[in-house]
């Protein structure tokens, strides 16, 4: 099941050509991942404080398919593809209407504050595919 997160493109998100600067797509999908976790009941601050678990991107494959422009309203879709051990693989897409603008496969790893891998907590695993 896809999680949806709306984003409006502001002037500050665009480059000299008037299109969304490529790095801002990564910011949009980061926000969407945070909201996906929050809406799933995962309090990342509490997870860190109580279990010393944080998440980091360890791999990202991105395709820029069509430009977004100032004042566009976009939908960032987040779909869980796989979850096991310390890894979560998400597919994230940014669309405007029915037109896909950006697609990324993001691999996250759960780790402790020292950077050592940690198992994904059972409540989060339950959200998997």
Automatic annotation (TrEMBL):
InterPro entries: 4-hydroxybenzoyl-CoA_TE (IPR050563), HotDog_dom_sf (IPR029069), Tol-Pal_acyl-CoA_thioesterase (IPR014166), YbgC/YbaW (IPR006684). Belongs to the 4-hydroxybenzoyl-CoA thioesterase family. Gene3D superfamilies: Hotdog Thioesterase. It comes from Rubellimicrobium rubrum. The keyword Oxidoreductase does not apply. Pfam families: 4HBT_2. This is Tol-pal system-associated acyl-CoA thioesterase. One of its GO terms (molecular function) is fatty acyl-CoA hydrolase activity. Keywords: Hydrolase. The keyword Transferase does not apply. The lineage of its organism: Bacteria, Pseudomonadati, Pseudomonadota, Alphaproteobacteria, Rhodobacterales.
């Amino acid at each position: 099941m896809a999680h949806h997160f709306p984003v409006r493109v502001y002037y500050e998100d665009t480059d000299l050509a008037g299109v969304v600067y490529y790095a801002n797509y990564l910011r949009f999908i980061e926000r969407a991942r945070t909201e996906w976790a929050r809406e799933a009941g995962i309090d990342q601050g509490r997870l860190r404080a109580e279990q010393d678990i944080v998440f980091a991107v360890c791999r990202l494959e991105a395709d820029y398919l069509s430009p977004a422009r100032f004042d566009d309203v976009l939908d960032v879709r987040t779909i869980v593809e796989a979850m096991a051990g310390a890894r979560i693989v998400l597919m994230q897409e940014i669309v405007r209407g029915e037109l896909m603008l950006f697609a990324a496969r993001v691999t996250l790893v759960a780790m402790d504050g020292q950077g050592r891998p940690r198992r994904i907590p059972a409540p989060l695993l339950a959200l998997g595919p």
